[in-house]
Amino acid sequence: MSSVAVLTQESFNEHRSGLVAEQAGGSSSAGDEEAPAYKDAFPPLPEKAASPEGTQEPVNAWTSKIRPLKSSVITQVFHVPLEERKYKDINQFGEGDQAKVCVDIMHKTGAHLELSMAKDQGLSIMVSGKLDAVMKARKEIVSRLQTQASATVAIPKEHHRFVIGKNGEKLQELELKTATKIQIPRPDDPSNHIKISGTKEGLEKAKHEILLISAEQDKRAVERVNIDKVFHPFITGAYNKLVADMMQETGARINVPPPSVNKTEIVITGEKEQVALAVAMIKKIYEGKKNATTIAVEVKKSQHKYVIGPKGNTLQEILEKTGVSVEIPPPDSNSETVILRGEPDRLGQALTEVYAKANSYTVSSVVAPSWLHRFIIGKKGQNLAKITQQMPKVHIEFTEGEDKITLEGPTKDMQMVQSQMEAIVTDLVSRMDYLEISVDPRFHRHLIGKGGANINRIKDLHKVSVRIPPDNEKSHLIRIEGDPQGVQEASKELLELASRMENERTKDLIIEQRFHRAIIGQKGEKIKDVRDKFPEVIINFPDPAAKSDIVQLRGPRNEVEKCSKFMAKMVADMVENGFFLSVPIFKQFHKNIIGKGGANIKKIREETNTRIDLPAENSNSEMIVITGKKENCEAARIRILSIQKELANITEMEVSIPSKLHNSLIGSKGRFVRSIMEECGGVHIHFPTEGSGIDTVTIRGPAEEVEKAKKQLLSLAQDKQTKSHTAELKAKPEYHKFLIGKGGGNIRKVRDSTGARIIFPALDDEDQELITVVGTEEAVREAQKELEELIKSLDNVVEDVMNVDPKHHRYFVARRGQVLRDIADEYGGVMVSFPRSGANSDKVTLKGAKDCVEAAKKRMLEIIEDLDAQVTMECVIPQKFHRSIMGPKGSRIQGITRDHNVQIKFPERVDGPGKGGPAAPPAEAAVQENGEANGEMVEEPAAPVDPTAPKKCDVIVLSGRKERCEAAVEALKALVPVTTEVEVPFELHRYIIGQKGSGIRKMMDEFEVNIQVPAPELQSDIISITGLANHLDRAKEGLLERVKELTAEQEDRSLRSFKLTITVDPKYHPKIIGRKGAIITNIRTEHDVNIQFPDKNDDNQDQITITGYEHKATAARDAIQAIVDELEEMISEDITLDARVHARIIGARGKGIRKIMDEFKVDLRFPQPGAADPNQVFVTGRPELVDEAIDHLLNLEEEYMADVNENESKMTYMKPTGDRGASSMDEGGRERGSSKGFVVREAPWQTGSEKVREAPDMSSSEDFPSFGAPVAATNKASPWGPKRF
């Protein structure tokens, strides 16, 4: 039977104090009497009688049947120790990565998380939610907030599938249950090791579960032994050594559930004999320990963690030293009772260990106003770092809103830390103050300023801290903390700013929204300049979506007025620069306006300071828009028109028409003026700006068309002036082309006969059926009548038949019936139907309006006549010129086909010899040989090859009327390129070609020719230019001009290559180069020369080479010589400065030494580490400046040495760290009398052969190490047994 005795902390202390007093009394009388025996000092506790069996509570019959209802929502608490926390930044608790991870876990799993931090900086997480959500959240917490460890467990390969389970369900359940990641090798992997990653606790659980699964599936013997959980530590032994020894001895596998798993079953697997032996050994241990004595002691809940130790190491340590198991209640229990279980004679030692560990840490507090907390902590924790570095085991905790600071740490360190903290608080209270001022919240953001500029300036100037409440608090109070004088000055300045803002003015400026973006500028650059100019004025632009023109200015009255005038001037300039005009330029000349690579348009833009926008390439618009100042726009317009005038036979004519008639002449959406422009070959008619009162109308275009447009415009103006009348009628859009007629013939007849003007709708007009008739009333009536008759006749659909020879059918229906589509478009949508292919018929049906059918029939007969009169003509041009004749994308050949109404067919390209030319005639002869003549087979000799006959690949075939074909042949021959030769010096060829051929490509594109440069090995001066005859002259001139430029450049290069050298002592080279090359770069830039210093391995180390124009090289040499002369006048002196002050003189990143060097214009050289004389410093410069610099340095040394000596004297009073001898000194530095402490004989830690020895030193960090502290290795035997750190 086990006996239990309750021993409280008080009774234990009383017991010990009694013994100590007793010992003290004995020692005073008897001197060195024999020490008491351990059993006398610590008598074993009496065994407690067993409780009768009848005292147990009776089992309720109802409770055994009725199950209590369980909530679907569960709550679990997980604890993450400090050493296992992934995010250890204490300052960011509640924010930063840790908080983001928790929010993400809540979103992902649906569970609710609450975080709290223990005093030991461990993290407690309370998770609430449904069971599956809590389990998922637990897994996420472990993987994302806790540092991960890994382990491997080996089980037979054939057992892996049982760990995975059906469809992987078992593995998923196991990962969720243990919050680990389990990796099982693939079936084709011979390894039998399963890798587990997660927390230490999770690893143990997962390993246990996997081994259980393996044991269940193992064909060998499996034995399960149920032993109370409290006896498991005796079976595993300290640090699991005992169970490991048993497994090694028996060869069986023993799986003891870890402390975190609430199971009593121990599973043993292996061979039957091995299992039986292991079971016997376990039962033997159990039998030996089941009657072990237990004592229960009360230990404060807050001290339990010190008894447990990091990762339970302290419990294992006690078990190893004493053989006693210490049972700690779970963290969620309120119990403070700690149970010690073991042999009676070892319990006393274990109890001593428990109390020693429990009392090794204490908690105390220091009173400090909460507003002082951040000053105590210091910037980035600097003040606290000084304390924590000396006492790293002491934890200092600040609680927001509480006027106290909590300290927790080793007892021996607490007094010193507390005194230091109290000293800091006293000091801060004596020299710090705070003040709260009331300011309207609407002024808070103005006090802060943009990007905190205002408030940061006040903080830095007065060395204070200012807290302005956030907007959502709606608080008036602003708190200022710091030096009393600084607080008063800062509060005064803030109140002045606030009162100034109360007197500020708000002004609304009306600025058109279209100017807002221009005022703000790209990336806000322009408005930034305005704000910098008026820093006290706040400028607010409306949201672009609001479509508002109001820009708000707020600030001091005078500044707002100045800013308002400035912005009004900006807008006026923009309005002036916002003038624009449109210039009509024929579409074909737009590319000339742009120029090569945009050169022309760029030049006009830069010289006139305007913006010029051209229409898109696929747009039908011919208008070029110019924006800028009015006079600049006019200048740009003249430049653009002059380019067009140079390129084409364009004339310009001005017509005077009263301005009051302009709108009526232009018509709705420009319909009237557009119809004149289209009818007169696309002339441009430019009316002056509306309201200008100018009568002049400008007409621009080809001379004949301009004259025609002038007559029509004057006629229309006269009609409008006399008696203008307008009528409208409608006709189907497909009738419009027929009504207009070919080349406008039909509509011209109507206009000539009636005098009325007829306007058809443009493509972008909404009503495509509307036709407008303008003129005198009588003319309009007659024109309307004629048009209505035409339209009526078009509505009268008839069907007619005509005969077309079948050989011509293909021409009409080819290219998907393009010819028929053109006829339908031109003649009112008439439908033409040809007989089906293969039908032997020549009848063609036409259906549509009577007049349209007749006109279409007439047109088809003209086409047939052309086809009958068609001839085929050959034009011989060498094949190598065919591509050039075709032009880019066949543009040139398409133009000839269109202009001369002929068809042109080029031969197939023949690349190799024997595929064309002379080889062709024999092939034809062979065909003739196998042909039939008059129905009989005829054999004829092969025709002789005519050497003068042209090659087939050179023959271009033309089809059409004879006269048209002849004209087309002449046009083709005119496109044959010719070649000319230009003599260019061979050494210039590579410059003409340019980098990667860019130069020659540019010339070929510009002059539309091919330029061939001879190969380098030929060493030829002749360059060939091939192209059209009219392009060759321009190309030749361009090439010769380029030769002139290159020759001039060559001459300039030879002049620039002048070299001279200057001899300068190498010691002066760094001074001539200057810091980061500043001086030498300045000389190079100023004189436009290249200066080369000698390389390290050059023989002439004193030679500096200067290359450039002769006069510039000489000037650069003189500049270098002047520097050398100045340097030669300098002296160098050495002084002795104590090496301890060097760092302070040099300053952070050399800031201090640079300041001295700049101030005294000297050079300072401090000794390198390891120098023979570490105190020697060299000063170089002009004599008078060197003396001043030396005096300054010696003064600095004297000042800094005073600080150094003071610090060294302070260090003599500092307590040396890690010195055991210090424990024998009292607070005054006097040596205390030696004390033997409490000594006993026959203690459990003493062997029979040992003598009575001195008790362990309680103040020794070696005998009583603190948690986590490193311990120096020593061979000295410990009274507590061998050390296992």
UniProtKB/TrEMBL annotation:
Alphabetized Gene3D superfamilies for the sequence: K Homology domain, type 1
Boundaries of every K Homology domain copy: 147-215, 219-287, 291-359, 360-426, 431-499, 503-572, 577-645, 649-718, 723-792, 796-865, 869-977, 978-1044, 1056-1125, 1129-1198
Domain of life: Eukaryota
Cited SUPFAM superfamilies: Eukaryotic type KH-domain (KH-domain type I)
GO biological process: cholesterol metabolic process; lipid transport
Protein name: Vigilin
Organism: Oncorhynchus kisutch
Cellular localisation: Cytoplasm; Nucleus
Keyword check for Protein transport: no
Coiled coil (residue ranges): 773-800
Recorded name of the encoding gene: HDLBP
Organism ancestry: Eukaryota, Metazoa, Chordata, Craniata, Vertebrata
